[in-house]
Amino acid sequence: MFKHILPIALAMSLAGETMAATIEMVVDDKVYNVELADHAAAQDLMSRLPMTLTFENFGQTERIAYLENALKLGNAPTSTTPVVGDFAYYIPWGNVCVFIKDFRHSSDLVPMGKMSEEATEAVRKSEDRPVTFRAIQK
């Protein structure tokens, strides 16, 4: 049990962000949990769920998908040093991104949350298939 909890706790503490909510991501009918940060931008994203996006490769470091409208940032941090599994929002282009490789510190990049290794791999392999984010089904 600890081997599953420790990586999540470590990732949350390293990012300096408190995780506030869990949403679901669906890729090819398989469901993955995504932990969202505790700030206004993540809350704005949650208010738009369900949302279906198509991710594309951006270099070899991340997969990106464009939102219809910009997120309201409020108290969200506007820079981060992303690592594999980070879910983020790039302010200038209005896109969300999933990092499949570690990257350098970046301004205008809002840390939105964390994905498990399995969820990150599902996005990496999603090609042009839809990826749906939704509230947790109870």
From TrEMBL:
* Keyword Signal among record annotations: yes
Instruction: State the UniProt keywords alphabetically.
Output: Signal
Matches recorded under SUPFAM superfamilies: Cyclophilin-like (SSF50891)
Pfam families attached here?
Cyclophil_like2
The leader peptide range reads 1-20
Coiled-coil ranges from the UniProt annotation: none
Q: Which InterPro entries match?
A: Cyclophilin-like (IPR041183), Cyclophilin-like_dom_sf (IPR029000)
- Where the record annotates domain Cyclophilin-like, the positions are 25-133
Name of the featured protein = Cyclophilin-like domain-containing protein
Starting at the broadest rank, the lineage of the source organism is: Bacteria, Pseudomonadati, Pseudomonadota, Betaproteobacteria, Burkholderiales
